[in-house]
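User: Please fill in residues for this 199-position structure.
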């Protein structure tokens, strides 16, 4: 993944030209695990929007849902992501519902590259079983909920700049896929000699 001289990293930095990398996708898609490793590889800060929301509300996500309701969580999420997008370049893992907001999608388009980590239902279900802090799945049939969310959200996630399959491969392999796809997708920076030597 890493060339000894760091040239692959430098190349991707040049192509990103200061834009954030924003990971989107359903709960269990691997946004946080992949995002952290990607940020490490690029020597960029990493932020998880769910953590940033919890910090600014001084409450956990289940508490916000319970005490304030989902609508208020969503407006907090929109505000926090707008703030994160205004900060210097970083890798941002968003909560699964964040990209469903039209304003958030527009801001991401202006300031970042959206990468959708797309996983199949069994992969998602296996991964979400490890944690019990997702209010949307705290019901009698989380698999039906997930299926429903896939139907509603996948057409919107498809607006992301890139779609990377998220499967049973180790996270490192997914990071390599993201790096390769980003490098192929983004244009190399163009030299602009007229800027250096104005006529
Ligand atoms: C949500 C996903 C969660 C979190 C909240 C709602 C969603 O984030 O933001 O529980 O609507 O899909 P993760 O995708 O990081 O689990």
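Assistant: Residues filled in for all 199 positions:
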């Amino acid at each position: 993944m890493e060339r000894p001289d760091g040239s692959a990293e430098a190349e991707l930095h040049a192509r990103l030209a200061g834009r954030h990398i924003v990971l989107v996708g359903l709960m269990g898609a691997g946004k946080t695990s992949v995002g952290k490793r990607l940020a490490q590889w690029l020597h960029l800060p990493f932020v998880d929007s769910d953590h940033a929301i919890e910090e600014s509300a001084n409450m956990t996500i289940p508490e916000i849902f319970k005490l304030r309701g989902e609508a208020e969580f969503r407006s907090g999420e929109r505000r926090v992501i707008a703030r994160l997008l205004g900060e210097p370049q970083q890798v941002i893992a968003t909560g699964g519902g964040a990209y469903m907001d039209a304003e958030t999608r527009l801001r991401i388009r202006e300031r970042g590259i959206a990468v959708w980590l797309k996983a199949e239902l069994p992969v998602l279900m296996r991964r979400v079983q490890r944690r019990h802090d997702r209010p949307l799945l705290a019901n009698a049939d989380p698999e039906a909920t997930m299926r429903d969310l896939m139907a509603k959200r996948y057409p919107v996630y498809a607006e992301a700049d890139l779609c990377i399959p998220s499967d049973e491969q180790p996270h490192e392999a997914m990071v390599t896929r993201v790096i390769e796809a980003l490098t192929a997708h983004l244009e190399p920076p163009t030299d602009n000699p007229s800027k250096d030597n104005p006529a």
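For context: The first strand starts at residue 20 and ends at 24.
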